[in-house]
Write a structure and sequence with these properties.
Distance between the termini: 132 Å
Largest sheet: 9 strands, mixed
Oligomer: single chain
Radius of gyration: 42 Å
Shape: globular
Length: 1039
């Protein structure tokens, strides 16, 4: 019985369709009574469905065998009929279609496989996530909907010109009209059914609306009230027969002809009532192609967003771009089930620390190396290590709870750690504490986009974070696949590049979206000094209380020194503290970070050098707030710049970058190359014993050479020439050294490899370890002609030495110490360095470049005689060591005193070192601006030192040494000479000209000669003035 009624209804629906061979439907009509019947069908359908639900009936059956439960209606549109022209109802009416409508649509238009597989099963809101890659661009599966009938034109006469204008309004070419493709939305939802009716005269029988096929899956089947529904369907069948009669055809003929026209679903019918002058009672029914209604793209909602429906004023004339009736759908994404469930949010700092420690032990893999175990980043399991770990993490916990309480960004926190000391895993400890506090984490890497992001995501995976959290990033899916990392669509951790504006915009969108969901964000800036970029083209208004140039004004008057008294005191809560000053030449990324990220998230800045970040002109620290500094656990096996030594004969005498010719002619370079190839370093090619209790095996230290002397890359005098020169220099020794057994790794954007006399391109972003192992694999496969390597033979049997050449790209993200894949008991490390710096250096960048040779021996005992051989200017090496001592000392002082930021900078005694005049950061900021403490004393000392170099004072002192007086030609004693010299010296302190000094001397002689009661000091001053005037008249004036 059900099938019979469905067949009847199908016949009725088919009668509403038609298409002839020219794409034009033949004459046809249907009374407006169809609208009333359809409305009654809908009411009966809803009533039956409500009755079934009230009685506990099963509405989840699949009566129509379409693969979709009839009761499933979450996220899927009902079939729709849009009726226009009814009095007082201009908006689109929606009515659920019966299963028969779906059957009719299936008959008229073949269903694609994609649609037949559409299930319409959508999860709850928690199952929907935002895809980073579709943030700015719509994907192919974006949802579409249609405008109301405003876009459908019904006219008396429609010619080609009118159709052309309509097509242009929809931004479609005329040739494209016939082949407009169906738009798939979500699970390939179909077009809504739209019916358009022509105007109806009161004395004539109305023309029926024209109906397009249903848009999506049908509504649930009824489980009750079938009798009423069957009656309504019978009426619809009767109307179908009436239409067939008006067309002068049988129902079967209409069905057979329309059924052969799948394209009919893409047609509209313009029913024109054309007034006949001879017979007013007759209407000529003309059907033509009408443009497809304006399609609207329905955006995908991200978590934290909502539509504008609540803000749109209803009523009146609808705008063309009104999206009120656009159904916005969320895209379902597969979520990966986490291995460790999320624990409850802790209620206090102590509970958070205990939860952090427990969760860290669960996340860290059992076979995790000492370099990826973030549990020990702030302290190992020793008594001192546990105390240090608790102290640092409690500072983090207190900051997180204060941030959660105020929901406002606090003073940025600093994480201090030396190169290769484990700063990244320390950031992971902070990240875990924030995640356990129900916050989100952003990790910004530097300096470029690909390699640091891949490295950071890989480190998170090795640290075990994937057991509980997904990590999103800004790399494309292809780039992620090429680098062997996942590309999830959702995650609580977001990794991006620090200096890339596009990445920063995605970070800003991520933070705002999470904020709308009630989630705060902590932003971890790895290598934070990179955000102090070079001079740009933007202006930025900086508040007075964060301007790095005004820190002295916020020092309390009771704590001011002689260098601070000239600054006006400003109260931290006064209007003067909030006034803003315009800063010029700010880079784009730097400006974006200050305006977008600093106000919306809590910043934790991390770097080995902090002076450049503190002096950033955008203003990153409030002068009246305490600056908290965390410190990575100082491991006993760390070897930094303090272990760098210049071997005898290896001191360079070149100030600035080296050319290829200078490199070849330098004796110091020759000596260092000889030490490298003969492995003359104390610890090179020696075995290191493991630290007791670590379970590690002994390893053999194999030294590598780091050459960083020129900024030139792929030009004459670039990396290729340096590699060739090293080969030619070693071949000239004629002592058996084979340059073809040297592997050269050149960091020049995409790294290049030179081995066995052949150049090869390495993968962009690859580490030294990756390149070494890949070169070994290529050698085994015969890629390098003339070199053969057995599968079970180590690469070192054909590659005896490794040289790394680079300059700018060796500052960051280059881990040069590794264990070869085919030799697990060997540690390759930079043990030899040939290094220069430009004459106008920025000392923080230069120190970061040379410390690529630093290393943390976490598992092995470091010999007491361990050192790194460096060929460098001795003055430059001493300057770099002095700078690192200054950085370490200012951190320790602040950690002990926990002073406000203005006092923190006041306590930096910069002028006690020889660092005056050096610059930091890409902006070339003078390091002296970090602190003014000791400036006046240094100026006085400098003036005295400059005075002593005055040529007239030097000549006067020589004149006194040779002066004789009396009949015996006696000479002045040393004390007398010093007294006369000091008496004349003050006249030269202000850099006075010699003529002015002579005038002062003459005036002094004139004033003192007439005085008969002179004390000893004035007598010495008078005699000194006489001797200086004699010296001037005898030796200076004649010249």
């Amino acid at each position: 019985a059900r099938q019979t009624t469905d067949d009847d209804a199908r016949d009725g629906v088919r009668a509403m369709w038609g298409d002839d061979d020219r794409g034009v439907v033949a004459d046809g009509a249907l009374t407006v009574e169809a609208h009333e019947v359809v409305t009654r069908v809908e009411d009966a359908r809803r009533a039956s469905l409500s009755s079934a639900k009230a009685q506990g009936g099963d509405v989840g059956t699949d009566d129509d065998d379409d693969g979709v439960d009839d009761g499933v209606d979450d996220g899927v549109d009902d079939g729709v009929i849009a009726i226009d022209g009814l009095p007082g109802d201009r908006d689109v009416r929606r009515a659920s279609m019966s299963d028969a409508y779906e059957d009719a649509r299936s008959t008229l238009e073949p269903e694609s496989p994609a649609r037949s597989e559409s299930s319409g099963l959508w999860g709850s809101d928690d199952d929907f996530v935002y895809d980073t890659e579709s943030e700015s661009d719509y994907d192919d599966d974006s949802d579409y909907d249609y405008d109301s009938d405003d876009d459908v034109q019904v006219t008396q006469e429609i010619d080609s010109n009118e159709i052309e204008e309509q097509l242009q309004a929809t931004q479609l070419e005329p040739s494209q009209f016939e082949d407009v493709e169906e738009t798939q939305a979500g699970d390939d939802a179909m077009d809504d059914v739209v019916a358009v009716s022509a105007p109806v005269r009161a004395d004539q029988e109305p023309i029926a609306p024209v109906v397009r096929p249903p848009a999506v899956a049908p509504p649930p089947a009824s489980s009750g009230n079938d009798g009423a529904e069957d009656d309504l369907i019978a009426q619809l069948r009767a109307l179908t027969e009436k239409v067939a009669a008006q067309l002068g055809r049988s129902v079967d003929e209409v069905n057979d002809e329309v059924g052969r026209r799948p394209g009919a679903t893409r047609r509209g019918i313009a029913a024109n009532r054309q007034r006949d002058d001879d017979d007013d009672d007759e209407y000529a029914i003309t059907a033509v192609n009408v443009r497809r209604p304006y399609r609207r793209r329905a955006p995908t909602i991200v978590p934290g967003q909502r539509t504008l429906d609540g803000f749109i004023q209803r009523g009146g004339v609808r705008a063309r771009d009104d999206t009120a009736d656009v159904q916005v759908m969320r895209r379902p994404v597969r979520r990966r089930r986490m291995d460790i469930p999320r624990p409850p949010i802790p209620e206090n700092e102590e509970a958070l620390y205990e939860l952090w420690e427990t969760t860290a032990k669960q996340l860290v893999p059992e076979n995790a190396s000492a370099y990826s175990n973030f549990l020990y980043a702030f302290g190992d399991d020793s008594a001192e290590g546990v105390a240090h770990r608790r102290q640092e993490m409690m500072m983090v916990c207190k900051m997180l709870f204060e941030y959660r309480r105020t929901k406002k960004a606090l003073q940025p926190m600093i994480l201090k750690g030396r190169e290769r000391e484990g700063k990244s895993v320390a950031l992971f400890s902070i990240a875990l504490a924030a995640l356990l506090s129900d916050m989100r984490v952003v990790i910004l890497c530097a300096p470029n986009k690909v390699a640091p992001i891949v490295d950071m995501v890989s480190k998170l995976e090795k640290a075990g974070f994937s057991k509980m959290f997904n990590t999103r990033h800004t790399l494309s899916s292809k780039m992620a696949a090429d680098n062997g990392i996942d590309c999830p669509q959702a995650g609580a951790i977001f990794v991006a590049a620090l200096g890339t504006v596009g990445d920063l915009k995605k970070v800003d969108s991520f933070i705002k979206g999470e904020r709308r969901e009630g989630k705060l964000t902590v932003t971890l800036m790895d290598e934070c000094d990179e955000i102090t970029q070079g001079k740009g083209c933007h202006n930025l208004l900086v508040a007075h209380d964060v301007d790095p140039d005004t820190y002295q004004e916020f020092i309390p008057e009771a704590q001011r020194g002689e260098d601070d008294h000239d600054a006006v005191f400003v109260e931290s809560d006064s209007r003067a503290a909030k006034r803003r000053k315009n800063k010029n030449q700010i880079a784009t990324a730097c400006k974006f970070v200050k305006e977008k990220l600093f106000p919306s998230s809590q910043i934790v800045a991390c770097s080995a050098t902090l002076s450049g970040f503190i002096l950033n002109p955008i203003g990153v620290f409030h002068h009246d707030r305490v600056t908290e500094i965390l410190k990575v656990w100082p491991k006993p096996g760390f070897t930094g710049i303090e272990r760098f030594k210049i071997p005898q004969g290896c001191e360079l005498d070149i100030n600035g970058s080296m050319s290829v010719d200078d490199f070849e002619e330098s004796d110091a370079v020759q000596r260092m190359l000889h030490r490298f190839y003969k492995r003359q370093n104390h610890c090179d090619d020696t075995q290191l014993a493991p630290i007791p209790g670590t379970g590690a095996n002994p390893v053999t230290l194999r030294g590598m050479l780091f050459v960083s002397v020129s900024t030139k890359v792929n030009v004459s005098g670039g990396v290729r020439d340096f590699a060739d020169i090293i080969c030619s220099m070693t071949n000239e020794w004629c002592d058996g050294t084979d340059a073809n057994k040297t592997l050269f790794i050149c960091y020049v954007g995409a790294p290049m490899v030179f081995f066995a006399g052949q150049w090869k391109q390495a993968q962009k972003g690859a580490t030294v370890e990756d390149i070494y192992n890949q070169t070994a694999d290529h050698t085994r496969r015969g890629v390098f002609a003339g070199v053969s390597l057995e599968d079970d033979a180590p690469f070192s049997s054909v590659c005896s030495h490794c040289v790394v050449i680079g300059y700018n790209l060796t500052r960051r993200a280059m881990t040069a110490a590794f264990t070869p894949k085919d030799e697990p008991n060997v540690l390759c490390k930079l043990q030899y360095v040939i290094f220069t710096a430009p004459k106008k250096l920025t000392i923080d960048a230069v120190s970061q470049r040379i410390t690529r040779a630093s290393h943390d021996f976490a598992l092995h005992v470091v010999p007491s005689e361990y050192s790194v051989d460096v060929a460098i200017r001795s003055e430059l090496l001493d300057l770099l060591k002095e700078y690192r001592r200054l950085e370490d000392k200012m951190v320790e002082t602040q950690r002990e005193g926990r002073a406000i930021h203005s006092i923190f900078r006041q306590q930096i005694y910069l002028y006690d070192s020889d660092l005056s005049g050096v610059k930091v950061s890409k902006r070339g900021i003078l390091l002296e601006e970090l602190s003014a403490t000791g400036r006046k004393k240094h100026w006085r000392e400098q003036c005295e030192a400059d005075v002593d170099q005055n040529e007239y004072l030097i000549g006067f002192k020589k004149y006194l040494d040779s002066y004789s007086y009396g009949p015996n030609h006696e000479s002045y004693t040393g004390s007398t000479i010093d007294q006369y010299y000091r008496a004349i010296r003050p006249w030269f302190n202000s850099n006075a000209e010699i003529d002015r000094v002579v005038e002062c001397v003459k005036e002094t002689i004139k004033s003192l000669e007439g005085n008969k009661s002179l004390d000893k000091s004035l007598v010495n001053k008078l005699n000194a003035a006489r001797r200086f005037l004699e010296y001037y008249e005898k030796e200076v004036a004649p010249a």
